[in-house]
Design brief:
Elements: H1 3-28, H2 34-64, H3 75-95, H4 112-148, E1 153-156, E2 161-168, E3 177-181, E4 186-195, E5 202-210, E6 217-225, E7 238-243, H5 247-252, H6 257-262, H7 266-297, E8 300-308, E9 313-317, E10 330-334, E11 340-349, E12 354-358, E13 369-371
Parallel strand pairs: 1-7
Antiparallel strand pairs: 2-5, 3-6, 4-5, 6-7, 8-9, 8-13, 9-12, 10-11, 10-13, 11-12
């Protein structure tokens, strides 16, 4: 992956993390519809972001691998550019002299610094993967808990105050709302009546207050407009209030495995992991640039894209005309351990990147090394 593609990938990751945070904040305003609201906003932003990101990365790759000399160039310009390439190749060869022997059985990296940076990059890659795995588990646990918990059930402790919502048959002025409860120690004050954001139905929002003197148990609360006459075939929605004795008992009532076992809501784990994911991606990008620079000093570059073609594997790597690479050149292919695996033929080259063909028997994959030196 070239420099511009890596920058685009980092920007894409940051945008996705920002969209996740925005979705969490927006969903937090609708605690009883948290999962529905989260998925609505998150996927509304995620899908176009991914489509645009993939398109931009593909465009950057195409631009980087186009030949440097256009077909309509004049002869004078072509000769001038060829001389510049020869000069760049000569300068590069002085910096990276070829090895005298042809093909050794094993090649080792000469600089311990390169190996050390590679180990740190691998560590941060694994850290990012672990954090993403934890985030995925937390999201899955939270979603299954939301779907298993009815929207009309609220778990509280004595003396608690929380904001709750409920459906209405039609939108009415807030002054016309009344409620009935199976206990005088449970009170409800209405704050808003509005249209639901998902299905479009009317809903009320209010603040529930539970007295500290209430006895733990299940209580029912029903919200209706003034003058409401219940119909047998269409009863009014009932809100179920479950009052628990202490924090330990209320934890056992949670459907979320994480929250039931640790007392920590799974969304807090997601928020906690996000900075580590961003830090890990940023560090991997920085270390990849360092590795690319150190390899370039030795006349080498990592393979960042592999795709199967008709004649062999089509591979892309970060060596170009400024390194003396030209279409038709035959370069050396090494695996991650430095072992010779074959030769490749350059198909086209830009200033900093090239595309070449490797044989199917080379087993090439991302992370293999291309060298302009002959072994």
């Amino acid at each position: 992956m070239n420099k511009r593609q890596r920058i685009a990938q980092v920007v894409l990751n940051i945008l996705i993390i920002a969209e996740l945070c925005i979705s969490i904040l927006l969903a937090g305003k609708e605690p009883e519809l948290f999962t529905i609201v989260f998925f609505k906003y998150f996927f509304m932003m995620l899908i176009p972001t991914l489509v645009l990101g993939i398109f931009v990365i593909k465009i950057l790759r195409t631009k980087e691998t186009q030949p440097e000399i256009p077909a309509h160039s004049t002869e004078k310009e072509r000769v001038k550019k060829e001389k510049a390439k020869e000069s760049a190749a000569a300068t590069w060869q002085k910096k990276t002299p070829a090895v005298s022997h042809e093909i050794p059985m094993m090649l080792t990296r000469e600089h311990s610094k390169l190996a050390r940076i590679s180990k740190w990059r691998s560590f941060f890659q694994k850290t990012a993967a672990l954090c993403l795995f934890i985030v995925a588990l937390s999201l899955l646990d939270s979603c299954q808990a939301k779907f298993r918990t009815p929207l009309n059930v609220f778990n509280v402790l004595p003396g608690a105050t929380l904001e709750i919502t409920g459906p209405l048959e039609k939108k009415v002025p807030i002054e016309e709302l009344t409620y009935r409860s199976t206990s005088d120690l449970i009170r409800l004050s209405f704050s808003e009546v509005r249209t639901g954001i998902w299905f479009g139905g009317a809903m009320w929002i209010g603040r529930l207050t539970v007295s500290p003197d209430i006895i733990p148990g299940e209580y029912r609360l029903m919200v209706t407009p003034e003058g409401y006459k219940p119909e047998p075939e269409k009863p009014a929605p009932v809100v179920l209030i479950k009052v628990y004795q202490d924090h330990l008992s209320i934890r056992q009532g949670f459907k979320s495995f994480i929250q039931r076992s640790s007392g920590i809501p799974p969304w807090w784990i997601v928020v906690f992991c996000l900075p580590f994911i961003g830090l890990s991606f940023g560090t991997v990008f920085y270390l990849s640039r360092k590795i690319e620079h150190l390899l370039a000093q030795e006349g080498k570059a990592e393979v960042y894209r592999v795709s199967a073609g008709v004649e062999g594997y089509e591979i892309a790597f970060g060596l170009g005309t400024r390194h003396g690479v030209q279409p038709g050149d035959k370069l050396t292919l090494l695996n991650e351990a430095g072992r010779y695996t074959g030769s490749i033929v350059v198909q086209n080259a830009s200033e900093g990147d090239s595309v070449a063909i490797a044989g199917f028997d080379s087993g090439v994959r991302n992370g293999y090394i291309v060298s302009i030196n002959k072994y």
